[in-house]
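Dock o-succinylbenzoyl-N-coenzyme A; give full complex structure.
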Amino acid sequence: YERVHGRVPRHAVRWRNIAIVHKERLKDIKYEKGHGEGIAKITINRPEKRNAFRPETIEEIMRCMTDARDDPDIGVIILTGAGTQAFCSGGDQAVRGEGGYVGPDRVPRLNVLDLQVQIRRMPKPVIAMVAGYAVGGGNILQMMCDITIAADNAVFGQTGPKVGSFDAGYGSTQMARLVGQKKAREIWFLARLYTAQQALEMGLINNVVPLDRLEEETAVWCREILRNSPTALRVLKAALNAAEDGQAGLQELGGNATLLFYQTPEGNEGRKAYLEKRPPDFSKFPRFP
Ligand code: S0N
């Protein structure tokens, strides 16, 4: 592999901070893009709360995810937490009102579910880079990412049944797909915490590395992915989703087929014929066996 493609560089990513996204300043998160490389990094920046998220945190992450999706220079997105003690400790229990998580507009909402779907539908790989705790909704966020690289100090688990919450959506179904039905029931029913090594063995994450090499190793995975065909990655992610996401998954996969078809002479013949007010001539296009 190395002879054909060359060694994957291990140097540190030089990050460029982006403080304002879609005309609004970021408060709860940091957003960075690598100088000269197609990597974006979104960091939940509430370490004093173990990076627990409130509605504003989620809104900001979603805004940056949209920016990264729309930026043609970006091919991979890292989601992480500030500091070494936590990736994310789930929903901020201090802003959980009588009816749910409450933002400045006083409206209770669970917008983290929208973020889960956004990560799922993102046509570029999203990599969770986990140091410390990934618990509750934080563990679900790392599960929704395509790949998870964890530091050896990482701790995973659900606390829902202890703190009066649960995720009966992807938080349950995706977990069962990753670790199997029996293990998923154990994780949710007992609400225990698991080491990075245990998480690796049960298929919850992809790799465990020493804490001081976490970003270096994550960058290597990103650079390896970035060498590959963006269209192949995009369609593969849609295909892996489609088998499990029902009509929504098929829509995503079907959308990719249309995207590619629009770029073919055959697809363009129909458009041109309409604009030129003539019947389309599809006779020159092959009927592949
Ligand atoms: C993470 C833990 C284990 C870390 O323990 P440690 O290192 O001993 O630190 P602490 O002293 O406990 O914490 C330091 C400070 O951080 C505050 N803090 C930590 N976590 C939270 C949090 N989640 N909300 C608010 N504050 C938090 C501590 O209070 C402390 O502050 P001070 O020093 O001022 O006292 C440990 O902290 C822990 O167990 N945390 C709570 C984990 C938890 O229960 N999280 C919530 C779980 N529930 C959800 O996430 C629901 C998620 C949700 O929104 C959802 C709902 C339905 C469907 C889907 C979802 C979804 O998320 O996907």
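Observed: The first strand starts at residue 15 and ends at 17.
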